[in-house]
Amino acid sequence: MADVVLAGEGLGKRFGGLVAVRDVDVDFERGEICGLIGPNGAGKSTLFRLIAGIQRPTTGQVRLNGRVLTGRPAHDVCVAGIAATHQIVRPFRELSVIENVMIGAFFGHRPRPHGPRAAREAALEALAVCELAERAESPASALNLAGQKRLEIARALATRPEVLLLDEVLAGLNPTETDQTLHLVRTIRDRGTTIVMVEHNLRAVRGVCSRIVVLVEGRKIVEGDPERVLADERVIAAYLGTAAHA
Amino acid sequence: MLLAALIALPFVAVDQEYAVEMLFLIFLYGAMATAWNLLGGLAGQISFGHAAFLGIGAYATTVLLAKGTPLAVAVVVSALLAGAYSLLIGVPAFRLRGPYFSIATIGIGEATRLIALNWDSLTGGASGLTLASAPPLRTQYFAALLLLVAAVGIAAWIKASRFGYALAAVRQDTDAAETLGVATTFAKTQALFISACILGVAGSVYAEHYLFISPDSVFGFSTSIAFVIMPIIGGLGTVAGPLIGAVVYTFIREQFAATLGNADLLAFGVLLIAIVVFEPKGILGIVDRIRRAGAPRAPAAPRPAENADG
Hints:
Order of helices and strands of chain B: HHHHHHEHHHHEHHHHH
Largest interface: A-B, 31 and 19 residues
Largest sheet of chain B: 2 strands, antiparallel
Strand order of the largest sheet of chain B: 1-2
Number of domains of chain B: 1
Number of helices of chain A: 9
Radius of gyration of chain A: 18 Å
Shape of chain A: globular
Number of helices of chain B: 15
Structural class of chain A: alpha/beta
Oligomer: heterodimer
CATH topology of chain B: ABC transporter involved in vitamin B12 uptake, BtuC
Largest sheet of chain A: 6 strands, mixed
Helix content of chain B: over 70%
CATH architecture of chain B: Orthogonal Bundle
């Protein structure tokens, strides 16, 4: 594979007797939009948290540009260049929209802005990309769900990540908001950030991702081109299997 | 301008010893409340054990002065000892979050008081320590004013800085702060250290004023509680709030001390309940509310009181 920016090697996570992720090898190429999909309970979110440093893997390594990040705290992982959004939005509700984003700009990946004025400018730029600039001075709590999801992305983007991890950013959005968010994801990729998105919405994944990785029961079962992967009978079986039980 | 008036006051009002004494107490308590507010208000880590740092400063100053150490050295050592102690307790305590952290600080405060009570050879145990002579009240007044200005300056600077944003993020959502690159434990430890150093210096001023210190006064739980009460009365996490709280606290305490003794604790209890129930943002929150209520309803009416705040 050409230019691997982020790699997981033999990643595993065990919670007591439950093995959520087992022995996953996965590479992400610079500049791609990669979808991480799988039925409920497949371990997508756990794998996501292992990569973001929110949880420590039981086995295996995470490498960014070849450098091992395993076991480093979440703030170190962010400083190293991997930013993550939360599946359930977590804005700093007492702060304004721009202040939320300034925190990402102040900390995060180097080079960092010097002083509050430079951080404010960097935050405004991230807000402009996410089409939130006109809401900059509103309290974060005043945004609706779609706005708060975009604020999550803006905040993560302000940390200047090399890789942006998006955890179900489309969940709860209507079709128009979904299209806007997918457009935003492409824009961010075009600005040079590699994107890994955990997603339930297969139609959206098909539209935006250049590659898909499928997890089932904690294992990677197939990866590659979206059309081919979504037509794979193991993937169909995994999804229909859960649908039949539901 | 207010500052100029405060500087001139002890010269103009030489006979007004009561006023100077009251202002001295307000400055000292304002500085202590501001120091507590760095950790409790800005970073949202509510400590019920901050008397430990005041006590260490007060004891260090008293012991060092008794040995003939110059005052300036004693003050610096007091600050650094309090700061060093804060690092010692901060590392384990910050493994805990929210109410668990607060409960741990109660234990730390009480443990520190018991150490002071039982370390007779250094602290004189329950009978306490005395200093031979105090600087003139006017000198103390300026020392306390300087400490207050420094503490408020530090608080205002932190609040507007990158560090202040880190603390605001920690206060509201520690996990979200972590994923945005904020080293949350380090930020909390820094806030605690600065807070403890200021309280160490406050301990020096305290010891020089009262000339007598005992474990139950400087290390007492009620002292720790006072640090919590003042910022909550005025407005948690604001720069002016702890000062407003210190004014209210000092007046209530002095009034009750003259008449009803320990009934001031009852008054603070009632006040705290009222604030938590009706306006968790304290007196500044009430001021805010009045302004907002006044503005849209009567836009044409003259509001001469609006510019009255400093």
